[in-house]
């Protein structure tokens, strides 16, 4: 399948349909950071891991400023490389290892962004996740065609400001969909 500019899902939300049984993705919203002919990469943004930013900073021996919210949740970003951290943030900034998703949003994997956040000097809006979700060439498109996911343009307020437990319904609502009315049965008309 040749991807056109309009079929690119970079900077989109993937919203798991109720019938998606994979425990890694049931009732999740995934922010797609990169999508091209080789596959896709995204971060699950609504599944807190039980860890806090403070615990991660302590583990990494990064001292935090007292004005930083150390109780901010760390998310389970996906099943791939769960030992690696990913910071989705705005504004983009100039960090050591970043992937610019849009002019306003980037995902960074380097320690410098976490250190800046810990000192209250980092990106104003951010979320931290361990691991990511990845798809091979054509795999995500096939899953969407099989009704595993809804997809639509990402919305920064939903990404950064909506409470994690409300992001699944909020992302679907951006498409005019009420998740409470979706069937857990899948099929094609």
TrEMBL record:
Membrane-spanning ranges: none
The organism's taxonomic lineage, starting at the top: Bacteria, Pseudomonadati, Pseudomonadota, Gammaproteobacteria, Thiohalomonadales
Name of the molecule in the record: UPF0301 protein SAMN03097708_02218
One Gene Ontology CC term in the entry: cytosol
Highest taxon above the source species: Bacteria
Similarity comment: family membership: Belongs to the UPF0301 (AlgH) family.
HAMAP family in the cross-refs: UPF0301 (MF_00758)
Record-linked InterPro entries: AlgH-like
């Amino acid at each position: 399948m040749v991807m056109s500019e309009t079929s690119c899902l970079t900077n989109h939300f993937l919203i798991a349909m109720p019938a998606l049984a994979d425990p890694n993705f049931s009732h999740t919203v995934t922010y797609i950071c990169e999508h091209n002919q080789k596959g896709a990469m995204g971060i699950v943004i609504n599944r807190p891991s039980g860890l806090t930013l403070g615990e991660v900073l302590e583990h990494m021996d990064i001292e935090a400023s007292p004005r930083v919210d150390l109780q901010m949740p760390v998310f389970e970003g996906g099943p791939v490389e769960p030992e690696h951290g990913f910071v989705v943030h705005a504004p983009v900034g100039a960090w050591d290892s970043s992937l610019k998703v849009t002019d306003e949003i980037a995902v960074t994997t380097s320690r410098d962004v976490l250190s800046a956040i810990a000192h209250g000097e980092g990106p104003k809006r951010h979320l931290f996740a361990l691991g990511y979700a990845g798809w091979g060439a054509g795999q995500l498109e096939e899953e969407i065609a099989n009704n595993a996911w809804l997809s639509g343009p990402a919305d920064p307020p939903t990404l950064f400001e909506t409470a994690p437990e409300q992001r699944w319904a909020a992302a679907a609502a951006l498409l005019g969909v009420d998740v409470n009315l979706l069937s857990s049965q899948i099929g094609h008309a």
